[in-house]
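Interim report, section 4.2 (structural modelling).
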Amino acid sequence: MKTGYNALFIPGPTNMPMRVRRAMDVSLEDMRAPDFPELVTPLLEDVRKVFKSETGQVFIFPGTGTGGWESGISNTLSPGDKVLMSRFGQFSHLWTDMCERFGLDVHCIDVEWGEGVPLEEYERVLKADTRHEIKAVFACQNETATGVTSDIAGVRRALDAANHPALLMVDGVSSIASIDMRMEEWGVDVAVSGSQKGFMLPTGLTIICVSQKALEAHKTAKLPRTYFSWEDMIKLNATGYFPYTPATTLLRGLRESVDMLMEEGLENVFARHHRLAEGVRRAVTDGWGLRLCAAEPKWHSDTVSAIVVPEDADARHVIGRAYERYNLSLGSGLAKVAGRVFRIGHLGWLNEVMLSQALSGAEMAMRDSGIMVEPGSGVGAATEYWRTAAAGSIAQEAE
Amino acid sequence: MKTGYNALFIPGPTNMPMRVRRAMDVSLEDMRAPDFPELVTPLLEDVRKVFKSETGQVFIFPGTGTGGWESGISNTLSPGDKVLMSRFGQFSHLWTDMCERFGLDVHCIDVEWGEGVPLEEYERVLKADTRHEIKAVFACQNETATGVTSDIAGVRRALDAANHPALLMVDGVSSIASIDMRMEEWGVDVAVSGSQKGFMLPTGLTIICVSQKALEAHKTAKLPRTYFSWEDMIKLNATGYFPYTPATTLLRGLRESVDMLMEEGLENVFARHHRLAEGVRRAVTDGWGLRLCAAEPKWHSDTVSAIVVPEDADARHVIGRAYERYNLSLGSGLAKVAGRVFRIGHLGWLNEVMLSQALSGAEMAMRDSGIMVEPGSGVGAATEYWRTAAAGSIAQEAE
Amino acid sequence: MKTGYNALFIPGPTNMPMRVRRAMDVSLEDMRAPDFPELVTPLLEDVRKVFKSETGQVFIFPGTGTGGWESGISNTLSPGDKVLMSRFGQFSHLWTDMCERFGLDVHCIDVEWGEGVPLEEYERVLKADTRHEIKAVFACQNETATGVTSDIAGVRRALDAANHPALLMVDGVSSIASIDMRMEEWGVDVAVSGSQKGFMLPTGLTIICVSQKALEAHKTAKLPRTYFSWEDMIKLNATGYFPYTPATTLLRGLRESVDMLMEEGLENVFARHHRLAEGVRRAVTDGWGLRLCAAEPKWHSDTVSAIVVPEDADARHVIGRAYERYNLSLGSGLAKVAGRVFRIGHLGWLNEVMLSQALSGAEMAMRDSGIMVEPGSGVGAATEYWRTAAAGSIAQEAE
Amino acid sequence: MKTGYNALFIPGPTNMPMRVRRAMDVSLEDMRAPDFPELVTPLLEDVRKVFKSETGQVFIFPGTGTGGWESGISNTLSPGDKVLMSRFGQFSHLWTDMCERFGLDVHCIDVEWGEGVPLEEYERVLKADTRHEIKAVFACQNETATGVTSDIAGVRRALDAANHPALLMVDGVSSIASIDMRMEEWGVDVAVSGSQKGFMLPTGLTIICVSQKALEAHKTAKLPRTYFSWEDMIKLNATGYFPYTPATTLLRGLRESVDMLMEEGLENVFARHHRLAEGVRRAVTDGWGLRLCAAEPKWHSDTVSAIVVPEDADARHVIGRAYERYNLSLGSGLAKVAGRVFRIGHLGWLNEVMLSQALSGAEMAMRDSGIMVEPGSGVGAATEYWRTAAAGSIAQEAE
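Predicted structure of the assembly:
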């Protein structure tokens, strides 16, 4: 019999705040009630702020991030449209696959797993596309499988350098609300998220934000869409309602989680994620003497770290042992990196003490699996960083 | 300030049982954990029993009933396929509309709102279709807008009489788990439901069951699908997992609600819904002297009653007053019947005493709106029926 | 298998508001945390407002109303002290019994069950007590067993007419926060309540408010007390803490329920209780042709109605049937009135539509028990009163 | 703004299991319902098993452990009775104080804080009491303030060696359900617990178990008691009911927590507490080079460790910093040891990974407070012990 709480350190779903959990523990409600728009209208507005969009429109569907991909693609593109993509992990792979299933003409650049969106290559391809056949450029802001964050501002610069009008589509499922997303500043046209990552909710909501340019493209886009279609949403959302029954409990939870993000302050949320993530990285490299899957610091993700185990070890054993014996859920290595990495998700409603569980538990599981890291070395490296980083921020506050 | 609980008597979402609510109030969990299939595999099996399917396959997506329609259509049909439909309410209307958006060749029979699927007409059309161009026949088992239940066994008989091989697609969103659905016996190929009706959960799950014949059709169906696609589900569900992050809190709730349905016994659940509904109908006709939108007893729905207000009255006023003054949510009249009907949903986790709230509240709201039904007349007619019907059932038990 | 919610219409515990329930669904907390007083200090202050005390002190113990009686008695009186009491129901009986167990010299006036505190008799006794041997006068504001509310202002007048210095002790367990209690104006010295009545919480808190005069008496009171002692509370509460571990989940709930009482406004809360109660009384007398246990309108309780069944009927059967068959909990007749009355509690988080459940359910249970009230007669009498009383209040608002 | 969960490592209240939390999130219920005994009767029976009593009787009051002391004392003793006690921490001190307030003739042996019940001294005093004037011997099984566990079997041996008939009263508030209590075997007459420690519930229940010998003593005991009196409880509990409104939500929680204790197995629960505690002790001594307040290993408590900070440090700073900066609640030093110790509670629903939070957080807070323990040293010492201890237990299982 397992005792105690499960320590959940996969890269989403995350540890829901109790406030959010309580906010969702409500009776069901009449989605056609006269006061229902009092929930919907300001919520859509505030979610837009999380995307840092000023002129965009937010859509919320009962669904997942995968549904968000579908919604973004099917509402803006037409069969045979050419798109530029890159693939460097399981999720960027699946996204590419979806585009192919939709019959798009996918130009996909394969990159080593552990690296991110290839900016120079993007720029080169876009410059070469003088006839502007490429209708959309795709960038995965955070590849959850490898713990790699890509430079979305850099993708915008590549587009601008090529003076290219393609739409910019960003997969922000495991980054938005944890890592900075600046839709307006970076000219992102479709940004996709889900409820169970930075929004700290259960799985069940597709959350996307789209630019006016995307809405314009939508008018001529020919890919079929019904459930994830924007037109009915645009019409009904304008009145504070939805075209079909919305997932009201999740919406109530989203209201609370967005309130929490606002109360903490988005920049503080991002800084906290960075501080927590940096502690984990210190544990991995300075403490354990291991390395991250992310090949360079510029690609270090602040929401998930994929840790490469020594050649002669099997990460699956570490993950299995952590779960069975220590009631700790770590993320597994997917596809190409199965057995080679285990992942620690460090996003959502977390603090230093909570996160130390992932490190102490991983240490025990690694040692049980024959990876003889020094006991306490990872935790010590992380806590000492957190402690002094925190002291630093306190010092700053005092100035 | 409104006091007390909102009395929710719309035809879904419903009054969740506290057991279900508690079952969903759980921490998020690792959807790749080794013991996750212990939840998934028996759950899919037991949901199938609710559909009374023996050889079919259940699919559960984060979504809604509308998503279920899309999943059923896009996974079995190809562009230009001819389908036979009928339209007699807002939901059968929207279903037709979806087929048209998918580019199907829709043969739609329009019927008076208040009637159901036109069996003779269906049989006639099917018999005339000697070349079997019609690929699928659609039937809405329960039209939520008008409180009309159609005879699905009759549709099967029509198909058989014509010896027609078309697929039989049934919208059971507001009937399944409340009104009998016998997929196997009636040869239903795709039955669509959602979480927030008879399954007594929040909105957020698309729940469908499909026959082997539908799975066969799926192999050659050409409509595009990604999110709601069956192939990835088939592959992953076989291992007890999902192709993308499932809505675990809702799955935990579904486990509990299916347990409750099994504990009560499906036939008892149906009998209870019938008994409760019949009480409401007695209130409407014997008590208030009003009439139902459903034109004939054979079309009376056991999950929702649409009540026609007198010519000089506006049902919107009744609904508004009920909500604002009495904290009672009644269903509104949609589209064609807006202002002409108000609806009482009587499905899900209900008993006689709970349902009496809808009647006493509706009486007050009607009188406040100038519809001078006798105070207590509806409640009295219903309770006396329930009381004696119950006594009857108790007498039976004693035999 | 019982289906649907249990309709809880006993005179406490009550139907908790979901807001309160959620407020209590929290992790446990450190009762010595530096910010714990941020909960405690304003809460004690605001609870005092519910008692309408300006100079008194509130004490909250993990306990019940019975514990409140003990706390009030043992902290202000000494063995052998003479006290004036009256007995007219099960709870005033038990209170008397407690005083006797404490070795007090109890002068108890027995009154017919159905009547309240005998004001003239009190005045006579007090005037006769020229040597002021009576140290305390006890008055049960609301006798829960018979549905009788007594006139506390009248008891004060009796004391004043006799110019008597005795303490005034009031049992307000089933009245406070539902029926007006004016500690300051009426010169009440100890008022006792519990969490599970007007405060809309689970059982588990003893809530009392005491005057400065009672605190003065406390200094010389000789009855033994430890757990319910005031001195340690006074000392620790002044710092925002408690002498022993407080029931933090209930305190969080109390914070929410007091917020709700304030938001609605105490006078509105009282008016609502009166309006709801009056509807029930109309149902009993005008609808069913039965009578209340409370002998005169001046004694009608706004929190509970005890309904006398016909001579040849047994109220226990009504109650049993209501529970077993209709999932409705009615209050039973206690001691002397067992079998003669059933009780409907109408206090706490209620509205008209909710309360109609008790009436429709009682009608069914009575008819099943051979008490052939007209079906719908009680509900109709109540709803018509509520409807027009509400209209009146709306008319007033419009002026 | 604090982020993440508060890590609660005070020695009670504890981290409630979610199962228990859900079990308490129920509607209020009729405590006079015909099926209420189905909850009460088996619950009292099963709680008795936790005390390892075979012939005793369990009493449950809305209250706390302090109320349990009062109940035990007032129901078995008479004014002026001589009792033997020992004092070596804040809680044994308060217990002594309560006996004095009750007017008992307290023979109290003061022992150094850090030691436990002085067995030889007890034996000496009991042997000297040849006239058996001592009516009861008190022993605090677990002194929460110092983290000292006393040897109750040893106290029984002392009584037996003196052939003394005194009652044996045990304070097991912070031990029962976490540390072995064998009422029957050790001849304990009154054992006192509360809900918020080993029972893993919120504060709010007094839980005591008393022997037949105590029930016999009760018949002649003269101390006054009303609320915490046994006689009414005995009478009503026999029918499955309570003399006054019970705290039903907590009873539902207790049902669940007792179920969990039974599922895990009491011996496994004790072994787990020991293993977790031993890890903390390794952290303190081997990792940090500090010492425990408990003076000898035989007094090491498996539910709480009081850690002595270096002479030049202030434990209050560590505790304050842990709470304010790291959202970690540590127990403070009470009375004599204020500022000298901080405490880590390690009881209830815990596992290794959860408990590592207390260690990593304490390390950060100590270093921030100038106590320069090696980063990771405590966590490393604990985890390595846990890991190998666990391996050992697994090895055993395999045999």
